[in-house]
Design brief:
By secondary structure, the chain is of the alpha/beta class. The chain has helices at 25-36, 55-69, 82-90; strands at 3-9, 12-20, 43-53, 75-78, 98-99. Helix 1 (25-36) runs parallel beside helix 2.
Length: 100
């Protein structure tokens, strides 16, 4: 992961850049949770600059979704490139989280 950047706070919006894989998935999760903090709002992940993710990363997105749902909030994903979006659709993640 090259970069995880906070770009908004209501809802919490985090921009992702680079790749998320088994080598950095926990770092990605920790960074997003740090930016989210104790917020009482949904989380938006802006993936316009995300270039690659693997199955570990998909699991981390689900882990974030579970964290948010326990607090009564949702995970929204925007800006996925078509190749990565196809992975979310194949895994039916578009049925459990909002993908723009």
């Amino acid at each position: 992961m090259e970069e995880v950047t906070l770009i908004g706070s209501a809802p919490v919006t985090v921009a992702l850049k680079g790749s998320i894989d088994s080598a950095n998935a926990e770092e990605f999760y920790a960074a997003v949770k740090m930016y989210y903090g104790d917020a009482e709002t949904d989380l938006v992940l802006d993936c316009a600059a995300l270039e690659f993710l693997d199955s570990t990363a998909l699991g981390t997105f689900i882990k974030l979704l579970k964290f948010l749902k326990e607090r009564g909030h949702m995970l929204k994903i925007k800006g996925l490139n078509p190749r990565i979006k196809k992975l979310f659709v194949i895994c039916a993640l578009d049925k459990i989280m909002e993908i723009e």
